[in-house]
Amino acid sequence: MRRSDVIVVGAGPTGLFLAGELALQGVRVLVLERLPEPDPTIKAGSINVASAEILDRRGLLPAAEDVQRRLLASVGAFAGHGRKNALVNQLDRGVRGTRRFPVAGHFAGMLFRDELVDQGDPVLAAHTAASGGVLVPQYDLELLLGEHCARLGVEVRRGVEVRGVRGVGVRGVGGTRPADADLSDDADVVVETSAGELTAGWVVAADGGRSAIRRQLGIGFTGTDPQLVGYQAVADFDDPGELSRGWTWTPRGIYAYGPIPGRVLVARFGPRPQDRDAPVTLDELQAVIRDVSGVDVTLKGLRGRATRWSDNARQAQSYRRGRVLLAGDAAHVHAPFSGQGLNLGLGDAANLGWKLAATVRGRAPAGLLDTYESERHPIAAWVLDWTRAQVALMRGDEHTARLREVVGGELFAAPGVMNRVVALTSGITQRYDVADVVGVAGVAGVADRAAGPVGSIAGDVALSSGDRLADHAHDGRFVLVDRSPDGRFAGAGRPRGHRIAYVADPASAASPPSLLVRPDGVIVWAAAHDTAAHDTAASDTATPVTATSDDGVLKELDAAIQRWVDSR
């Protein structure tokens, strides 16, 4: 059987997007999935802005916008008789061409309030292009990414259960040597499955929070125990009666009804079921809804399968063991509030994909793959704390209720606070520490005039031609936007055309700086063109830019390219 460069275990959003990233770079990738078909079970109901921008950079935003349009029609109908709620109105404006930052979501059930958000905030204003593609449920996202992978020629084998991994030459499951004994950096990995053994140069476990691979390798999964048990389903009610639409706190927990017709989420503080793996029955779900809401509702049936979950918050101590890596829920789990798990997994895939591809293709700078864990581990740790804080504010006792009044009624209404909370939830404030490698060239404050400071997500970068930076990132290359009046950075970008998309965008003195942006949308170099005017122009040759003591801008660009693109 043909050896794969990479085997991805798990065909959820994380695994599928990662597979697509690898295929874009010419890597032979195979995806293995236990389920025979995509799971229609109700899960995350949307993605955040950072995730929508990930799709935008791969040309998938139009498909996401189509999903949002269909969903908005359904939500509008649920609002009743042509009336639309505030969320529908503001997202609908985005679909019809008025780009605004989407104020959608909640913190501990306290809905974000559009009227408290300053749309003129430059942090938010730099991330509006993808606002029409955030209302994308997980099932629709999986279908979208599955089609993306099919176009790229990725093979997805469904109905295949992965039982373990081992290094070449190590006995299989039940052998006498540790399973990870020979999972070294220079040996292939054998994947033991229900369909036989498969071999790959690398394996990425994106097989969920109960990852069999993570457990087998003995990678620590530390964190905090659950305080609540939650359920989510789309159900047919005999009569929803007095169920409140939106989020409602009660002494027993919290529940949310809508905005999709029949969708209900309910979380109850207290002990977990004895058999947490047992399917959720109609009677169990009905009993929990009645207990938490205090409303004597009757359920007639379920549309699809109901899910049971908890606020168990844990993170893998390491994201890598030799040639096996963890991504998505296999690396971190937490309460699903605000859909942070889906977004966190997509961010993992976007960060890891191009780095692993460069490693497989033998063109990765030294230490590049190590930055996957060093960059993504702190982001996940922050998200776990963000969800823990929400669970603390959801309790039904009087003290917590008064605290919610202070947070939601007073603090969130203070100038700038809602903007900050919305930005944090949207994922656009994520920043990696790349400053130790290369700084920002030019006068002080140049980073503030960029689309985002070095180390942050580029966001909306408009070009004088009328298109955007994201339009040049569809094939997964780095993007070098050269805004110098004489194209002085062409010598750094054009010779590496297979790795860097060079975009000449000469601009006026008041325009944003030139940028080098990684495939995952992170800015790793920026230079104000007016401050670089005195530097020696780069020649348009295959020789990497070599800086002198007088051309610091080119020196920093060359350092960034050597650090992130290649060292040759």
From TrEMBL:
<protein>
    <submittedName>
        <fullName>FAD-dependent monooxygenase</fullName>
    </submittedName>
</protein>
<keyword id="KW-0560">Oxidoreductase</keyword>
<dbReference type="Pfam" id="PF21274">
    <property type="entry name" value="Rng_hyd_C"/>
</dbReference>
<keyword id="KW-0503">Monooxygenase</keyword>
<feature type="domain" description="FAD-binding">
    <location>
        <begin position="4"/>
        <end position="387"/>
    </location>
</feature>
<dbReference type="InterPro" id="IPR036188">
    <property type="entry name" value="FAD/NAD-bd_sf"/>
</dbReference>
<dbReference type="InterPro" id="IPR002938">
    <property type="entry name" value="FAD-bd"/>
</dbReference>
<keyword id="KW-0274">FAD</keyword>
<dbReference type="GO" id="GO:0004497">
    <property type="term" value="F:monooxygenase activity"/>
</dbReference>
<dbReference type="InterPro" id="IPR050641">
    <property type="entry name" value="RIFMO-like"/>
</dbReference>
<keyword id="KW-0285">Flavoprotein</keyword>
<dbReference type="Pfam" id="PF01494">
    <property type="entry name" value="FAD_binding_3"/>
</dbReference>
